Amino acid sequence: MSNQHNITSPDWKQPTPGLLSPYFVAGDRIVGFNHENGNKIYVFNTYTGKQVYEIQVSDITSLACTAGYLYYLDNQKLKSVNLYDKSPNPEWQEISIEDDVTQLIAHNEYVIVVTAVSEGGLLSTTTSTTLTVYDFQTGKQVWKPLDLGDASSNVEVGIGEEALFFLSGGKLHAMNFYKGELRQNFEQNIKKGLQDGFSFSETHTPIVGDQQLVCIANETGNTFNKVCAFHKEDGTPAWSFPKNPTANWYAALSEDRKAIVAVSRAGEAHLLDIKTGKPIWSQKPNNAIPTAIIDTPIIAGQYIYLSGSGQSTVAELTMATGDLMGVYEFKDVIQGSTLYKRPVISNGHVYFQVNDGSLFS
């Protein structure tokens, strides 16, 4: 769907060989893999939805893209090919990874791999987590792997131009890209600045702005949370919102990187100045927005979209004021099916797959 502007009228619809898990957009390609039809990676054209090529794999678990290259983990080997024609990356040295890979991320000149090893019995299990960074062209290690110790295997990673920010074991760390070293006093400053009774949510990826780092913090013993910002250079606190949370909050960075879109499960919406946390605009709770579709905002140009996995409904708000443009049902378009996963936004278009396998734009 493009923003031109009836979003219930798709630009194209294409059948696929099966459900893609996960799928994402890189340049003018949609990439995903499917276990149901012979373990294959599928690549589609974003303008037409037509399949460009497929790659047969043995046991794929992860996919990532950067700088025109596709990276995938197949049978414990990290491989790389050209995104546009699947020719081998000529400089890449195939990497063997024995431990379980929990995350594969590609960003600019780096490929980041998070691995985890669980030890112990049924009653007591510890997880040793390691983060390794490789050069995107050659596959060589950039610096020594970082041992995160007995941490959660659910590591959420936010990426800046000079540093990597990650949540692990309830702690927020910062690591300099160029040296491969943790920033001194960063974690301590974060801990001091986090309000008593709150801890970081490890299901929300840190949002990296130009000067601020934004996270979701949960209130201990409660289901409520709030949006918290820190100075990304040293981890000192910048602001938090709201002061006294009474709902679950979700946040996303605006395309110009100057603001945070924050929405609550109560249907409340705000655009917050990323430097101060002060609202640029605020919208009161709106009962017209179904609770089930309120999730991390999806931002595309002039609009904000809300949608959840397994839903057939999308809410649309304006970026300028937060006004609700409409709550759209896709039942007629997707013929009784439901959204398989949350939509993906890229280049002003909304892409989504439904449970019958069809891919839409």
Descriptive notes:
The chain has 361 residues and is mainly beta. Helices cover 3% and strands 47% of the residues. The protein has helices spanning 186-193, 331-334; strands at 13-14, 23-26, 29-34, 40-45, 51-56, 60-66, 69-74, 77-82, 95-96, 100-107, 110-120, 125-135, 146-150, 156-159, 163-168, 171-176, 198-200, 207-208, 212-219, 225-231, 237-241, 249-253, 259-264, 269-273, 279-283, 298-300, 303-306, 313-318, 324-329, 344-346, 349-353, 359-360. The strands form eight sheets. Strands 17, 18, 19, 20 and 21 form a five-stranded antiparallel β-sheet that branches. The chain has a four-stranded antiparallel β-sheet with strand order 1-32-31-30, with no helix packed on it. A hairpin with a 5-residue loop joins strand 3 (29-34) and strand 4. The relative contact order is 0.11.
